[in-house]
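sanity check this record:

:::
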Amino acid sequence: MQVALVALAVAGSLSATQAMAQESAAIKKSARQSEQNQTTNTETSTVLAPIVVNGSGAVDGYQPRSTSTATRTDTPLIDIPQAVNVVTHEVLEDQNANNLDEALGNISGVTQTNTLGGTQDSVIRRGFGDNRDGSILTNGLKTAIPRSFNAMTDRVEVLKGPSSTLYGILDPGGMVNVVTKRPEDTFSGEVYGNLSSFGGGTTGVDVTGPIESTDLSYRLIGEYKDVDYWRNFGETKHWLLSPSLKWTGEDTEITATYMHEDYSVPFDRGTIFDTTTGRAVNVNRKIRFDEPYNITDGKSDLFQVEIDHELSDNWKLGIDYSYSRNVYSDNQARVTGYNAVTGVVTRRADATNYSTIYNHALRADLTGDVEIGGMQHDLLIGASYDYSDTLRTDMLRCGNNTNFNMYNPVYGNLPECTTVSASDSDQTEKLSTASVYVQDSVHLNDQWIVVGGLRYQYYDLLAGKGRPFKDNTDSFGDALVPNAGIVYKLTSDVSLYLNAAKTFRPQSSIASAYGNLKPEEGISYEIGSKFELPAGLTANVALYSSDKENVAYNAIEGSATVLKTAGLVRARGIEMDVAGSLTSDIDIIASYAYTDAEVKEGENAGKRPVNVARHTGSLSLAYDMGEIGSSGNTLKIGAGIRAVGDRAGINDNSYDLPGYAVVDAFAAYTFALERPITLQLNLKNILDRTYYTSSIGSTAFGNQIGEPFNATLTARLKF
């Protein structure tokens, strides 16, 4: 609450800038509404309509228009020979998205995979992905941050298919780019607070604007969260502070952003599936099988600098740098066995103390818009360097214990582990990469665009563990990674495209590995179509086929986790996404995907990869009812459904996670005051379904459970 009170004080002291704030406020759907009613009083509509704090020229309400993620230049989506999906800020705000999984529930072909007990972002795209695959970026750069979605987030962009030519080491499924809020040149802000039906809530502030008589603008974001965990014990806590500063010169713009977050989250592996029945054990979903000390505590820091300089009318230089660090410790009572008849659960107390992960990322891009041979060329020439370092210092390991019964749980009989395992400690992974790349988008005429690119990638990798230290991976190498695509524009609003691209990803094993872990190599082919309808609707359809060789996976042998390779994994499918406005009052974001993924070679040949759903779909609608009565107050309502089909729960496919559908709804009522106040109620999992979002894959003892019905009431003051 202290953050909120400070923000209210700031708002009160800035009354002198009130007129400027009102004048600069961005109004949702203003363009469409002005077409419908040319006689609307401009001054009145500015006061009564919601103020958008996070405006962006790349989006309009629910509709994405352009992105720099795919080509690293601000390119209309219709001109990109690759599927790109965007979850805009307005979608995130309407749905009250609390994490990356909820945001990505709007995107086709994306499902959750092993989140390490809910402590890390981890998603599958087009059949590929894991929790340490480097596919989740912040502002286009890799980081060490475990959960990238937070109060800084403005929108989420998903680039489908191979993206290694521009972004380096990635899977064929694509990448997720979390775009953060930036300093604005006009003053605006908001203070918000919410209460959760689970208990507790969140409060925060977001203020941005120019610094008077300077070329500087700023943004300050702060948030404090303390929410009870929905199962029988635990709570989620964090506080975040993020200042940012932008300097704008005649030809140069420099933006610097810093974030610090302290967090404490439950380390919850979920429930057990009985492989003899193929179902979850018959225990209330709220009953945990671990201990109250199952917690991950940590601190994260992120510092990013972006420099954009116009060399001339046609050439620009961009330099981006990111430093990130995550320091954490965790404790857990790990399930290692169970007896479904007696209910006895075998557990082992483990812990990780003093773990540090940090990452440096540096990139320089030279972009040019030039004419060569009578044709327009959008050129990109660049170089990048990344270095990541992981050190898990003390690994604590204790023996098995059978003093817990899932049918009559009593906690506190398994103490925290205090025994350091020398052979398992000092787990280390160091990866450095250096690359140069080039890409050219050639506009042959008004209808045809040809895109080609090539990346030279060098890597140096070291991984191992133990006291004394033993390296299990010590390798280096290089690769050429190409991509090619064609766009044919049937009209200015409809395009057809196809592309082919490769991926490359060196593999490491901190633990013992079976044989030489060759780099993963992938290739993907995609054909699709994109539409931009006059009403404000963007849609795309894509068919793809992707192969990835030398795929690594974790397996349990005895009491040890070892790394193996699956040989060849293939994923094929079709995806459809729609986002934008059906009318001036009704917004939509919807998706559907069919994914046929299979292990083609290796020990699990013929099996489905873990956590990959054949069918996924979503539909969300929002209706802006406008003014209610004569007071000028407004009401917006909406509802949505997310559906995920059955998924393999374990590598040998001995059980499946059942499919599910979750229904959500919201209502937002805005009071037409001098500074608008919005009360918003979000209802999630209205039908209170029991469902399972992902599994760890190597055993049947860790299957994440989705949240039950919950309600959140949010109050938001904008100024």
In short: The radius of gyration is 25 Å.
